[in-house]
Amino acid sequence: MKKNIILIFLLLTTFTFTACTSKSQTDVINSGSNDISDLLKTLIQKEKEINELNQKLEDCSSKAKKQK
Known about the structure:
It is a single chain. By secondary structure, this protein is an all-alpha fold. It is 97% helix and 0% strand. The protein is built from one helix and no strands. The chain has one helix at 2-67.
């Protein structure tokens, strides 16, 4: 009887740690995907800002040429 209780305890412990490990791996994978997503959004925003600044520079350059 004592051996059965120990066996059941060991099995439950094994399943618990396996579930925790799987959850941790899933969380790490999801956080990596979220990080990439956030980086892409930031990159797109910065690219838009750069394009706007380039347009302003072109506008200023064309105004300067007209004034000469």
